[in-house]
Design brief:
Layout lengths: L1 E6 L5 E7 L2 E8 L2 H4 L7 H23 L8 E7 L3 H18 L3 E5 H8 L10 E6 L4 E8 L2 E7 L5 H11 L6 H9 L24 H11 L7 H26 L4 E5 L6 H14 L2 E3 L10 H13 L19
Parallel strand pairs: 1-4, 4-5, 6-9, 9-10
Antiparallel strand pairs: 1-2, 2-3, 6-7, 7-8
Length: about 325
Amino acid sequence: MLVLGIESSCDDLSMALVDKGRVLSNVTASQTLDHAPFGGVVPEIASRRHLEHLEKTLGLALEKAGKKLDQVEGLAATHAPGLVGSLLVGLNFAKGMAFASKLPFRGVHHIEGHLWSAFLENEPSFPILGLAVSGGHTHLYEIESFGSYRLLGHTVDDAAGEAFDKVAKKMGLPFPGGPAIEKLAAQGDAKAFEFSVPRVKGKPLHTSFSGMKTAATEYLEGLEEARYPDLAASFQNGVVRALTSIARRALIAHPVRQLAVAGGVACNGPLRRALAELAEERAVELILPAPKYCTDNGAMIAAVGERYLERGMTSPLSLNAFARLPLGA
């Protein structure tokens, strides 16, 4: 089933065409340069840029797939969670096309899209432990089957990617912060500064990054710039240890066949290596998306949308956008 997927939950507008689970095209209009001067995403700028790039992005996605708009058999768009203004641009565009062409439409949860991005190039083997780590999310799920998710744990404050962004901003590094810190950390000593792995009392599968962020800010006070690589490496090491710790505890408590980790932070090299070691230790298969599918992308939305549409599970055209919505609600 040829499905057009639209992802517009934050600052990237991405459209993709997927047919029978195969990605035919995936085109993203990035806004990194628009938001870099502000050290973070400005919601009003994001939604306006989405509006400006809709038609061009659609045209490129169709062209790269070698398809015409009248060949599309279904439509999918992110409807939650995210920046409401940004979500509405992509969601309403998809609903408008569905109404005009009488095509089936499905709204897709952003985190569900990330979880299944790991299976754009891999086959799932249930049960699966899914960890979504990005600028807005650090959520851990047990996945029994497609569409069946049980939340095991999450961050109680900052998401991992958000912590990277905030610390990078304090260090004067460019946005987005994760890649900037990883690059700087390559020159530093990961043991130079101490960052303890956070534990949430009574919630062994929850985590927290606000303490690490505060510690990094305190270390920065009066710190010579020559020591920044050491701080970057140490902070990155702390985040990696925090994420692998909750994944290890979850794998012990909930035996699964696969560990799937997705989201923008899943691009991080040290994290990918640490997860590979963990997977070998626990004798589970590690599934990681290709880096191009870690960040927000239309392919993950199209792929999830296709699975639902093939089951006849459509969404009403009255579906609204939500800034916050639990997966499975």
